[in-house]
């Protein structure tokens, strides 16, 4: 099946709304879980970082398994959508339980947060791998894929705004009504868990019938999932240089992003002294800036090339990060300027960068005769989780190493400098590897068009030529 037609707007919208069900729990965990553990649950930063790392490494392990399961699922309801539906409610429940301030003693509290975090990341994987895989199935058009990811990107930053500004508003108001600070976090998590659940259900319903129907019975002989079957499905992918470039790109970019994301709330609260209302105002500006950045990235990608857009925006972000490390971020205004300069990079990665993965699916189908959206998504998200896990763990260690104390009212200058490093210079250094991976990635608009044409002929049993896209094979 060759899907190159323009998608109906309601399908694009439905797919985009599903990003809310992904981004709300993702950002609650990435932005606030470590901060909650140190400043609400009272755990040391190193322990908080270790808990986050354990959960993310487990998430990484489950990614390939869920990807393989969704590729080989033979349900009459489709390969992807049943996983999305089954995962949504438990994902919402465990997100709330993550932000419950327990007081069982240090060891028992650690055990509680590790267990809930493992469950949370399992259900998150159960939703996001099939959802992300569907992006490659609903269209095979080179530019249309950018369009649907830009639609999803708008919802990413709507979710980011909701999940960053929103909790601070809820917490501020709930605390003023007499509820404890820790319990206010639980209420805030519950509010946004419900929002994420509703958006996920809307997306699940909107994508009915959009899976590639001829693929649902492709693997009828592989119903049993075993470690050997999972390994065999991934081995050819792991030998492919394009997949290696994609894995390294996602791992390094997510690593750099996770370092700054985990430390960003500390930058606002400790270095700049912003209260909850000021932080909520920042996140509102942040989301507006990024939504504008997505539109710019869409134009850049369509007018030039995906790789060129990524290289240009990552270079701008690195330059801004190095400048502000030495200049320092001294005010709310400078924080906004820093965000503006870095926004194009992040927006481009989450939209244009995601379609690099989608375009690789046709290469896999041409070489192996079958589509493996779930397996490819599983490997890519595996690399993201490993990068996030190590980054958050190292962030916690560095914060502890420079003397961060979540119970202290004022942090030392050494602590503030460490926080600034995590938000600026550290991500800039890591991002240099991302640029190299983008340069080496070989798929472009021209050779992708030739590949699709040959793939259509091959699937019809007709003669075809690999001229013009040999290096993709």
From TrEMBL:
Write out the entry's keywords from A to Z.
Cell membrane, Membrane, Transmembrane, Transmembrane helix, Transport
Query: What is the annotated signal peptide range for this record?
Result: none
Q: Which SUPFAM superfamilies match?
A: MFS general substrate transporter (SSF103473)
* Recorded topology in the membrane: Multi-pass membrane protein
Cross-referenced Pfam families, in alphabetical order?
A: MFS_2
Q: Which Gene3D superfamilies does the entry mention?
A: MFS general substrate transporter like domains
**Which InterPro entries does the record match to this protein?**
MFS_2, MFS_trans_sf, Na/Gal_symport_CS
- In the UniProt record, does the keyword Transcription regulation occur? no
Q: Does the keyword Ion transport apply?
A: no
Q: Where in the cell is it found?
A: Cell membrane
* Membrane-traversing stretches: 31-61, 82-104, 110-134, 146-164, 184-204, 242-268, 280-301, 308-329, 335-358, 379-399, 419-443
Q: What is this protein called?
A: MFS transporter
Q: What is the lineage of its organism?
A: Bacteria, Bacillati, Bacillota, Clostridia, Peptostreptococcales
């Amino acid at each position: 099946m060759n899907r190159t037609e323009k998608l109906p707007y309601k399908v694009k919208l439905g797919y985009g709304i599903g990003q809310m069900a992904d981004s709300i729990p993702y950002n609650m965990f990435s932005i606030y879980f470590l901060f909650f553990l140190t400043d609400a649950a009272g755990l040391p930063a190193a322990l908080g970082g270790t808990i986050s790392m354990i959960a993310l490494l487990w998430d990484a392990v489950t990614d390939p398994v869920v990807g393989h399961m969704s590729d080989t699922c033979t349900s009459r309801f489709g390969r992807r959508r049943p996983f999305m539906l089954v995962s949504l409610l438990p994902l919402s429940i465990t997100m709330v339980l993550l932000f419950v301030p327990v007081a069982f003693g240090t060891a028992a509290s650690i055990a509680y947060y590790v267990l809930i975090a493992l469950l949370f990341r399992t259900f998150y994987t159960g939703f996001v791998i099939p959802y992300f895989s569907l992006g490659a199935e609903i269209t095979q058009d080179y530019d249309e894929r950018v369009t649907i990811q830009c639609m999803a990107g708008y919802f990413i930053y709507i979710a980011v705004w909701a999940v960053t500004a929103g909790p601070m508003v809820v917490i501020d108001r709930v605390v003023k009504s007499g509820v404890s600070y820790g319990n206010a976090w639980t209420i805030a998590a519950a509010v946004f868990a419900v929002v994420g659940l509703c958006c996920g259900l809307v997306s699940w319903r909107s994508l009915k019938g959009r899976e590639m129907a001829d693929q649902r019975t492709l693997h009828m002989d592989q119903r049993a999932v075993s470690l050997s079957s999972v390994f065999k499905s991934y081995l050819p992918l792991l030998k492919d240089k394009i997949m290696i470039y994609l894995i390294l790109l996602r791992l390094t970019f997510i690593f750099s992003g996770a370092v700054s994301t985990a430390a960003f709330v500390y930058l606002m609260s400790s270095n700049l002294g912003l209260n909850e209302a000021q932080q909520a105002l920042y996140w509102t500006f942040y989301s507006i800036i990024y939504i504008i950045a997505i539109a710019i990235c869409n134009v850049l990608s369509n007018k030039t090339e995906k790789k060129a857009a990524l290289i240009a925006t990552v270079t701008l972000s690195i330059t801004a990060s190095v400048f502000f490390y030495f200049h320092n971020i001294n005010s709310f205004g400078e924080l906004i300027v820093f965000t503006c300069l870095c926004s194009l990079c992040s927006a481009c990665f989450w939209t244009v960068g995601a379609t690099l993965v989608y375009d690789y699916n046709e290469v896999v189908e041409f070489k192996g005769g079958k589509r493996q959206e779930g397996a490819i998504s599983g490997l890519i998200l595996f690399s993201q989780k490993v990068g996030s896990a190590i980054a958050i763990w190292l962030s916690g260690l560095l914060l502890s190493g420079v003397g961060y104390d979540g119970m202290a009212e004022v942090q030392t200058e050494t602590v503030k400098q460490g926080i600034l490093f995590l938000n600026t210079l550290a991500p800039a250094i890591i991002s240099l590897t991302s640029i190299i991976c983008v340069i080496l990635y070989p798929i472009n608009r021209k050779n992708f068009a030739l590949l699709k044409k040959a793939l259509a002929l091959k699937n019809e049993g007709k003669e075809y030529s690999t001229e013009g896209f040999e290096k993709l094979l």
